[in-house]
Design a protein that fits this description.
The protein contains two helices and 14 strands, in the order E-E-E-E-E-E-E-E-H-E-E-E-E-H-E-E. The protein has 259 residues and is mainly beta.
Length: 259
């Protein structure tokens, strides 16, 4: 089994032209670990084996294709910031060093929502760098097939901070502990270009840097200076500068109070 630990170095016994690389070292990305499913896929795409549970749910997307899966990976996501290791639903990462025609199956194994729009036909957002630059110019768009969303047999420990989480008493070792069963999102994607870099995400990302660049454009617009001002307020717990936007008829005298 090949293991890609995004928190440290990529650990592969042998790197060659067929090695697939994952990356989440960029803003708002949150991939934690990736495991390649052992064995060479030589049969059409099949869903993961699903454990029988009282609340099992699964509604396959209508776009079902009978294609041979070239590579399959199990993915684990980082928890949302300050969520007490309990919330994982957003995902954002990239793949590269992949040949044209490769059909990749991705299984995200630690999603927390009991149900999702993925079970009702929604597809992930995808961005292909080469398609954008060399193809038809399409940027973020929804793509993917053989999509499924269902309970799996894994659990995660939660605490009183996540009061909205129900738990299965069969998995409670201590009555003070609280466990939540996780869910799997699985889908396939066919790569259209050689040596492409493709990004996958829950929704088209809008990062802190995007907001900051937008605020900078507003600040240098002479028309807006008469009624809008941007002020530095403080730093977040993560040491990120926080700004406030003031829109008023008295721009010279109305200021945000810093406390």
């Amino acid at each position: 089994m090949r293991k890609y630990n995004i928190d440290g170095h990529i650990m592969i016994a042998k790197v060659d032209d067929n090695s697939v690389f994952f990356n989440s070292k960029f803003e708002t990305a949150n991939l934690s670990q990736v495991f390649r499913v052992p064995g060479e896929s030589s049969s059409p795409s099949k869903p993961l084996e699903k454990p029988e549970t009282p609340n099992s749910h699964s509604t396959k997307h209508q776009d079902q294709r009978n294609l041979t899966v070239t590579a399959e990976f199990n993915l684990y996501l980082q928890e949302d910031t300050n969520s007490d290791n309990s919330l994982t639903q957003w995902f954002y990462f990239s793949c590269f060093n992949i040949k044209k025609g490769t059909v990749m199956k991705l299984n995200m194994l630690n999603l927390m929502k009991d149900d999702s729009l993925y079970s009702q036909g929604m597809r992930p957002f995808v961005y292909s760098r080469r398609r954008h630059i060399e193809g038809d110019g399409v940027q973020w768009h929804r793509e993917g097939f053989n999509i499924d969303y269902f309970y799996n047999d894994k659990t995660i420990k939660t605490t009183s901070k996540t009061l909205d989480m129900e738990f299965d008493s069969r998995y409670v070792d201590n009555q003070k502990d609280k466990f939540k069963k996780t869910n799997t999102l699985t889908f396939c994607y066919e790569f259209k270009y050689d040596n492409d870099m493709v990004f996958f995400t829950h929704f088209a990302p809008y990062s802190y840097s995007d907001v900051f660049r937008y605020l900078c454009k507003l600040e240098v617009n002479p028309r807006l200076r008469e009624f809008m001002r941007i002020d530095y307020i403080c730093q977040s717990l993560g040491k990120v500068p926080m700004y406030g936007v003031t829109i008023t008829h008295d721009i010279e005298n109305d200021y945000l109070t810093q406390e």
